[in-house]
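For reproducibility, we list the full input for the S-adenosylmethionine complex.
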Amino acid sequence: MQRNQIPSFEELQKPLASFGSRSLYYKSVSFLLRNFGMFSEGIRIGYRHGFDSGNIMNYIYENDPQGSLYIGKAIDSAFLNQKTCKAFRAIKNIQKDFISNYLNERQGIKTVIADLASGKADYIYDVMKESNSDVNVLLRDINKDTLAESKEIAEELGLSENISYEVGDALDKESLKKIYPKPNLVIEVGLYGIIHDDEQIRDHFKALKEILNPDALLFNVQTYNEQIELIARALINQEGEPCVWHLRSVDLVIGWAEEAGFKNPQITMDPYDIYAVVMMRG
Ligand SMILES: C[S@@+](CC[C@H](N)C(=O)[O-])C[C@H]1O[C@@H](n2cnc3c(N)ncnc32)[C@H](O)[C@@H]1O
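The corresponding predicted structure, in tokenized form, follows.
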């Protein structure tokens, strides 16, 4: 697929010259989204909870345009049709397949799954709905409200019996040490792009290996995105800051995981060439 030149991560972190044409363009987009965009339910959720939140992810997965008046629904529909949103829905399905295949491989042996930045963990609930495997799931996230909302969904679906929820920072080694029982499969999807510092991810792989030593690790890597500047300059993250995501090559991230002792990467790209979904073995 042809890849156009996009700004580097370092460029995205710097503000644009105030009166340049790009700056005026992104300021106008931001103004329109923060005003007229509020008619759209998706844009409203994004500005309220952050465009990197579990809330917006679930809204995008549902793909059901909502909004006030005809205009709100039309804007929402356009939002949900953005390439990045389509890629999110595609990787959700890829992740589901990886998890289901892993459970099938286990042939009925009891399996513990820990998702360390779960958001609402829609992909896990979908797998659990379709599978008869003997699974225990631990969902962790730094956002307690997202976890509480996720728990409500699990209760409605009748899945809550085998799921526990914990607030925890995936990057905090002391917090990782509290995870019990040790998971067979660790999931971290939608996390690395919002971590700006390469060394933190590198270190984190080592911590995962040393502390949890899972049999399998599922993660994703945002490798390229034509909308990365629009996202960084017009949207906000959970902290209310510009939503700057760090694109990385999948080989680089796999290299860090290999350095920590994970092996045999299986990679599936989404059809939009934005995300790589990777499963590695312990
Ligand atoms: C883009 S969402 C992904 C949610 C879910 N995994 C998905 O793919 O649908 C990122 C999630 O990571 C959580 N998060 C961010 N930093 C974290 C950290 N250091 N430890 C645990 N969770 C974190 C956020 O609260 C948010 O729910």
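The chain has a mean pLDDT of 97. The pocket of S-adenosylmethionine is lined by residues 52-54, 57, 116-119, 141-143, 146, 169-171, 189-191, 194, 238 (CB under 6 Å). Both points were considered when choosing residues for closer inspection.
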